[in-house]
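cron nightly-structures :: item 1 of 1
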Amino acid sequence: MPTFTREEIEHLGVLSQIALSD
């Protein structure tokens, strides 16, 4: 499995929030 940096994880979280709020 690929490892994610803190910034990447936070970025994914933002994208998830945007997708859920659509």
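cron nightly-structures :: done
The CA atoms of residues 4 and 13 lie 12 Å apart.
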